[in-house]
C-alpha cells in the first residue's frame, strides 16, 4: 500500500513516477522491512548500490564537460569532495527527506531520521528509483539540480558541507572562550510543512540567521550565513 507521504515526497523532488512503488521502496530502510514482515526484504539497500553508480557518472560527466582543463587527478578530487556522505546528507536535508523515510521503531527512537549515513544512502536510493523509472536523463537532472551548487563551491575552494563544524573551528581558533548557541526564534506552518527560523549566537551576539524545513537544516543555514558575514564563504 502506497502511503500519502510518498506522493507528497514525489512532488518535492519534482518527478512524476510511472511506478510509484519504486519510490516507496527507495524510502524504506532495512530496519522497517525487518520489523514489518509484509515488507519482507523490500528495502532500499539494492537501490542504494545502483544509485551510487548513477550519481558518480552524472557528476563525472558534468565536471568532465565543465572543466576541460582539469587533469584526471583534479577531476577525481573534485568528484570525491561532492560525492560523499556529508554532501548527500545536506541534499537530504534540503528535501526534508528524513521525514518521509520508513524506519523501524528502534531506528526511529535512536534518531535515524537525522543520521547522515541513512540520509545519504536514501538520496542514492531515490536517484536509482528515478533512473529505473524514467531513465538516465531524468536521474541526471535530479542529481544536477541538487548537487551543482556544491560542485561550484568545491571549485572555488569553498566546499563546506558541515557549516556548523566549520564555524565552530573558526571561532575556537580565535578564542577557546567562544560559546556558540543555535536558537529557534520562530516556527511557522502546519506540522507537515513546518518552517524553522534559527539564529546562531556567539557569546551574546547574533552572527547569522537561517531558515529550513527542519531544525538541522535551519541551523546549517544559520552557520553558513555567519561564515558569509565573516568573509569565509561566498554566497
Explain this structure:
By secondary structure, this protein is mainly alpha-helical. The protein folds into two domains: 152 residues, Orthogonal Bundle (Ribonuclease iii, N-terminal Endonuclease Domain, Chain A), CATH 1.10.1520.10; 67 residues, 2-Layer Sandwich (Double Stranded RNA Binding Domain). Helices cover 58% and strands 11% of the residues. The protein contains eleven helices and three strands. A hairpin with a 2-residue loop joins strand 2 and strand 3. It is globular. The N and C termini lie far apart (43 Å). The mean pLDDT is 88.
Keywords:
mainly alpha, 235 residues, 3-stranded antiparallel beta sheet, 11 helices, Ribonuclease iii, N-terminal Endonuclease Domain, Chain A, 11% strand, Double Stranded RNA Binding Domain, 2 domains, single chain, globular, 58% helix
Number of structural domains? 2
The SSE order reads HHHHHHHHHHEEEH
Oligomer: single chain
- As a percent range, the share of helical residues equals 55-70%
Tally of DSSP helical segments: 11
> Architecture of the largest domain, CATH level 2?
Orthogonal Bundle
Distance between the termini: 43 Å
Quick one: overall form?
globular
CATH topology of the largest domain: Ribonuclease iii, N-terminal Endonuclease Domain, Chain A
Name the CATH superfamily classification of the largest domain: Ribonuclease III domain
Let me know the largest β-sheet.
3 strands, antiparallel
User: Which ranges are low-confidence, i.e. pLDDT below 50, for 5 or more consecutive residues?
Assistant: none
Proportion of residues in β-strands: 5-15%
Provide the gyration radius in Å: 19 Å
Amino acid at each position: 500500500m502506497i502511503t500519502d507521504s510518498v506522493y507528497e515526497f514525489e512532488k518535492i523532488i519534482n518527478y512524476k513516477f510511472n511506478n510509484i512503488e519504486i519510490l516507496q521502496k527507495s524510502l524504506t530502510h532495512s530496519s522497517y522491512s525487518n520489523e514489518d514482515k509484509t515488507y519482507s526484504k523490500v528495502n532500499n539497500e539494492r537501490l542504494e548500490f545502483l544509485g551510487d553508480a548513477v550519481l558518480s557518472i552524472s557528476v563525472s560527466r558534468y565536471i568532465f564537460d565543465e572543466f576541460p582543463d582539469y587533469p584526471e587527478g583534479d577531476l577525481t578530487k573534485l568528484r570525491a569532495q561532492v560525492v560523499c556522505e556529508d554532501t548527500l546528507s545536506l541534499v537530504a536535508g534540503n528535501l526534508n527527506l528524513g521525514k518521509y523515510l520508513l524506519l523501524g521503531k528502534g531506528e526511529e527512537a535512536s534518531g535515524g531520521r537525522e543520521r547522515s549515513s541513512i540520509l545519504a544512502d536514501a538520496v542514492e536510493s531515490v536517484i536509482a528509483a528515478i533512473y529505473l523509472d524514467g531513465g538516465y536523463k531524468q536521474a541526471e537532472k535530479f542529481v544536477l539540480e541538487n548537487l551543482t551548487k556544491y560542485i561550484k563551491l568545491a571549485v572555488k575552494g569553498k566546499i563546506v558541507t558541515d557549516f556548523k563544524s566549520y564555524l565552530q573551528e573558526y571561532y575556537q581558533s580565535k578564542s577557546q572562550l567562544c560559546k556558540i548557541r543555535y536558537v529557534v526564534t520562530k516556527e511557522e506552518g502546519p506540522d507537515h510543512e513546518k518552517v524553522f527560523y534559527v539564529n546562531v549566537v556567539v557569546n551574546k551576539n547574533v552572527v547569522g540567521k537561517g531558515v529550513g524545513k527542519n531544525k538541522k537544516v535551519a541551523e546549517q543555514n544559520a552557520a553558513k550565513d555567519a561564515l558569509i558575514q565573516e568573509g569565509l564563504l561566498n554566497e
